[in-house]
Amino acid sequence: MTMQTLVVCRIGAQDYALPLNDALRVVRLPALTAVPDSRPEVCGLINLNGRHLPVIDGWRLVGEPSHYDVTNHIVIIGDDQDRAIPALGLLVDEVYGLAQHPSSAIHPLRNSYAGALFCGIIYLEQRSCLVFNVAELRRMVL
């Protein structure tokens, strides 16, 4: 049985997850540098150890009004070719932690109602979590 570890987080009132093998770390929301004329999903750039990374606004992705707070977190996502290299950040309200489950527990979603942004859904501790398609997040900014 293949196990998968997920980073579980919250955006607005809904819980979300993404595969741990795509996430490098979680940081508190630092100052963001605005980028005029960027895609609407990009809320700015962060400086992470001398690298400037685009940050995707999780609220905009899921249709919630944007808001920023010093308690927010950014999940740093690795590059597609070399996962050890930071590529982008995903702004979320809170990161709960990690959840390990069989890969078969993640149920695929149909593109007809979920679009490309989510690759599946999993039931964790009496709540449903949509699982981000990290390749689609990378495609938005890279």
Total strands: the figure is: 11
Shape: globular
CATH topology: OB fold (Dihydrolipoamide Acetyltransferase, E2P)
Query: Looking across the biggest beta sheet, what order are the strands in?
Result: 8-1-2-11-10-9
Which class do the helix and strand fractions yield?
A: mainly beta
Q: Count the helices. How many?
A: 3
SSE series? EEEEEHEEEEHEEH
Q: Low-confidence parts lasting 5 or more residues at pLDDT below 50?
A: none
How many domain modules?
1
Approximate helicity band:
10-25%
In the CATH scheme, the class would be Mainly Beta
Q: Spell out the CATH superfamily.
A: CheA-289, Domain 4
Mean pLDDT: 91
Instruction: Report the end-to-end length measured between terminal Cα atoms.
Output: 33 Å
* β-strand amount: over 45%
Q: Could you please describe the fold and organization of this structure?
A:
There is one protein chain. The protein has one domain (3-141): OB fold (Dihydrolipoamide Acetyltransferase, E2P) (Beta Barrel), CATH 2.40.50. It has three helices and eleven strands; from the N terminus they run E-E-E-E-E-H-E-E-E-E-H-E-E-H. The chain has helices at 58-61, 111-114, 134-141; strands at 3-11, 14-19, 23-28, 42-48, 51-57, 73-78, 86-92, 94-102, 107-108, 118-124, 127-132. Strand 4 (42-48) and strand 5 (51-57) form a beta hairpin. The radius of gyration is 14 Å and the shape is globular.
Task: Offer a few descriptive terms.
5-stranded mixed β-sheet, single chain, 11 strands, 6-stranded mixed β-sheet, mainly beta, OB fold (Dihydrolipoamide Acetyltransferase, E2P), 142 residues
